[in-house]
Design a protein that fits this description.
Layout lengths: L2 H6 L2 H40 L3 H9 L14 H14 L4 E6 L4 E5 L15 H9 L6 E3 L7 E11 L2 E8 L3 H41 L1 H14 L16 H55 L6 H32 L8 E4 H18 L3 E5 L6 E4 L1 H17 L6 E9 L2 E8 L31 H11 L4 E6 L3 E9 L2
Length: 495
């Protein structure tokens, strides 16, 4: 693995390795202790079952020919001495106890003294359970030499005259326990070393395979993210639905699409911004140049100009100031619409009354240009639900545009028609019309047609209309043929 690859190794893989190794080690240690525990229990259960009849054999062999009690009621110690001799020949770990009917220890036969004070009584519950099951089940009983501990045992009841009790045989005495503990410690040491080495080997093998498999999709996703980071904006995770981390794969693809779309949008906005600056600079230059020319003329020839000429120059100056002001207002208005700083305040209003007001407003301009301006269907009062000021602005731009491109003796018509749930508004003129190939672009800002014509506009009027329609979630359609006029149609929701 190269240095670069090492630096690219995700922290997640390191954490997975650490968690995996710790889990395997914990499992190994748990396995060792559990195995040792049950192995010890299995050994004890086997020993107990094999020696379950030891107590019965002692009673049958020793108590048939001699009583464990002397005539004076004391313990027959010689009998138990012979029993110890036999025990040493057979099993040095056995400890024999003579118990009373209540579990009291009356006598014991052990090979070595105890370091602890022996208990004087043992619990009879395990003994009665052992006798009832005939030694078939694994049972632990009290160890008199080690109070509080329990060991495997064999037990059998006896009755001599009027005396009853139990022969209680501990099958794993102190000597056996000492040897067993030593051997068990050695066994655990060997088992621990072997199991640890074996566990580490298999942990490494299984860990490499598992982590490689589990992180395969993560590595693929990391490489794809790095490609995207390095500038490959087309980098995507292939078939995200087949990935083990489908949610993250889909999220990355969607995020990448969003980022790419935003970058494209920003580039488009930047291009349009440059075009806007260029167009605004060009359009502002014309009226400013006219203003400058006439003002300089007035300054230079103020004494030689007649009063009529001065008034004419001032009127031209005033007219260009109006044009410049209108252009700046349109630019400001369009900028706010494009930046989505305007939120429509929709309310019910009469589109018929608004149309009457606009017709009256532009009546004088139309008459001066000898254009007939009419309102169709003025009798029916149509109510719509929209922003009245924005709709007024859109209609005003459309009427101004129609009057501008209509020749004298022409006609501009504003018609209102109720259509089911909508009201259709149409502004038609008998002007020169729009070339078919130019019609898809007329709502783009600063997209001007008939560039050789003297009647060029500022290029923002129709763009503002389009933005207003977008805010009202409706569309505007243009129908036009060269030399046959144009019609602009849009719908508003009826109220």
């Amino acid at each position: 693995m190269s240095k670069t690859e090492r630096t690219l190794t995700p922290k997640l893989i390191k954490k997975l390795w650490l968690a995996f190794i710790l889990t395997i080690l914990i499992m190994a240690v748990s396995y060792i202790f559990i195995t040792g525990y049950f192995a010890n229990k299995y050994n004890q259960a086997t020993t107990q079952k094999l020696n379950a009849d030891v107590a019965n054999h002692l009673i049958e062999e020793k108590f048939q020919n001699a009583s464990p009690f002397l005539e004076d009621g004391s313990i027959n110690k010689p009998l138990f001495g012979d029993l110890m001799h036999d025990m040493m020949a057979v099993n040095r770990s056995i400890e024999v106890y003579l118990l009373g009917n209540d579990g009291t220890v009356q006598y014991s036969v052990v090979l070595s003294p105890s370091e602890h004070e022996a208990a004087k009584k043992v619990s009879l519950a395990p003994i009665t359970s052992f006798i009832a099951d005939k030694g078939e089940n694994y049972v632990l009983g009290d160890d008199p030499r080690n109070p509080g501990e329990q060991k495997i045992f064999s037990a059998a009841p006896f009755k001599v005259g009027d005396r009853e009790g139990y022969i209680y045989v501990i099958l794993a005495g102190e000597e056996f326990q000492l040897i067993s503990d030593t051997m068990l410690a050695q066994y655990f040491t060997k088992l621990g070393i072997g199991a640890t080495l074996l566990t580490m080997f298999f942990a490494a093998l299984v860990g490499v395979l598992s982590i490689w498999f589990l992180t395969k999709n993560l590595r693929l996703m990391t490489r794809t993210v790095r490609k995207f980071q390095e500038g490959d904006l087309s980098a995507r995770i292939i078939n995200p639905e087949k990935s083990d981390i489908e949610v993250f794969a889909r999220s990355f693809n969607e995020m990448a699409d969003t980022i790419t779309g935003n970058i494209d949008k920003m580039q488009s906005v930047d291009t349009l911004r440059r075009e806007l600056i260029a167009n605004v600079s060009h359009d502002l230059r014309t009226p400013l140049a006219v203003l400058k020319g006439y003002i300089e003329t007035l300054q230079i020839k103020k004494d030689s100009l007649t009063e009529e000429e001065k008034q004419e120059y001032l009127q031209i100056t005033h007219s260009n100031i109006d044009k410049l002001s209108a252009q700046i207002n349109q630019l400001f208005e369009y900028s706010k619409l494009e930046a989505e700083q305007i939120t429509p305040v929709k309310e019910p209003f009469s589109i018929t009354e608004l149309s009457h007001d606009l017709i009256a407003k532009f009546k004088m301009i139309a008459e001066n240009k000898k254009i007939e301006l009419v309102l169709e269907n003025p009798e029916t009062n149509c109510m719509v639900f929209a922003d009245v000021s924005l709709v007024e602005r859109a209609l005003q731009n459309l009427i101004e545009n129609a009057l501008k491109y209509t020749e004298p003796k022409g006609k501009v018509t504003l018609s209102i028609t109720k259509k089911e749930k909508n009201v259709e508004i149409c502004i038609a003129d008998t002007g020169a019309g729009i070339p078919i190939k130019e019609q898809p672009f007329i709502f783009d800002r600063y997209k001007q047609v008939n560039k050789n014509s003297k009647k060029q506009g500022y290029g923002l009027g129709l763009a503002i209309v389009k933005k207003i329609m977008d805010l009202h979630e409706t569309t505007i359609t243009v129908l036009s043929r060269p030399k046959e006029g144009s019609s602009f149609i849009f719908n508003l929701p009826a109220y």
